[in-house]
Design a protein that fits this description.
The protein has 229 residues and is an alpha/beta fold. It is 47% helix and 10% strand. The chain is globular.
Length: 229
């Protein structure tokens, strides 16, 4: 079996929602709830447009979809409130996340690059027992624009002391993949049904973090030694 990547990344930067935490369904649930409160039935097109985008952009998109652009702030607040409630009820990791992260941490510094609020990311990862593996959590804030801008990935690579071209991003959404590619990272895409653009931009694609070839690659890197932090 040939290796999926013939190199060892200087750092690995993970997306959180949908990649490590099985929380994309919570975003979907929260979005649907808010839209239905305004008499709108979400479409597949809306689901694709809203996946992975920053929550403020999602609020604006929901408001435009509902024909109430003046209520973007209110809908954003409702979205976040609903999402936090759903995550608190059921913070579950994606299949393979624990094993992959633990082994990857043995040979490379790890960081998170997310469009979510910091407290949501850190609380979810901490509850799942994953936060301790990550040296840095990067989210949009002052001077750091959300995905699909490259800022969160550029900041995460710098925090790990690595050049973007030497880093691997692990992503599940088109928005996130665009961000990582624009930042110059190589990309491992994750998901059952990637859209054409996501699949084309990713350097390699796996159906889940339990992918056998992925685990073999991570294991081989872990056995080869630990990268100095």
């Amino acid at each position: 079996m040939s290796e999926i990547f013939p190199w060892t990344p200087a750092a690995i930067v993970f997306d959180c929602d949908g990649t490590l935490m099985d929380s994309e369904r919570h975003w979907v649930g929260a979005r649907d709830l808010v839209l239905r409160e305004f008499g709108v039935v979400p479409t597949e097109e809306f689901a694709e447009l809203s996946k992975g985008v920053h929550y403020t952009e999602c609020g604006q998109l929901m408001a435009a979809t509902a024909g109430r652009p003046d209520l973007a702030d209110e809908m954003t607040e409702r979205l976040l409130r609903g999402f936090r409630a759903l995550v608190a009820e059921n913070p579950v990791t994606t299949p393979g996340a624990h094993e992959l992260v633990a082994r990857a941490a043995e040979f490379a510094p790890l960081a998170i690059a997310s469009n979510c609020p910091r407290d949501v990311v850190e609380e979810g990862l901490d509850t799942a027992g994953l936060l301790r593996h990550f040296g840095h959590v990067v989210v949009p804030e002052e001077h750091v624009r959300p995905k699909p801008h490259p800022d969160v990935y550029l900041r995460a690579a710098a925090a790990c002391g690595a050049e973007p071209a030497d880093c691997l991003a692990v992503e599940d959404s088109l928005c996130g993949i665009r961000s990582a590619v624009r930042a110059g990272l190589r990309v491992l895409g994750v998901g059952l049904r990637p859209d054409r653009e996501s699949f084309a931009m990713a350097d390699h694609w796996v159906r889940s973090l339990e992918d056998r070839a992925l685990l073999v690659w991570v294991e081989s890197r872990a056995l080869s030694g630990v990268v100095a932090r």
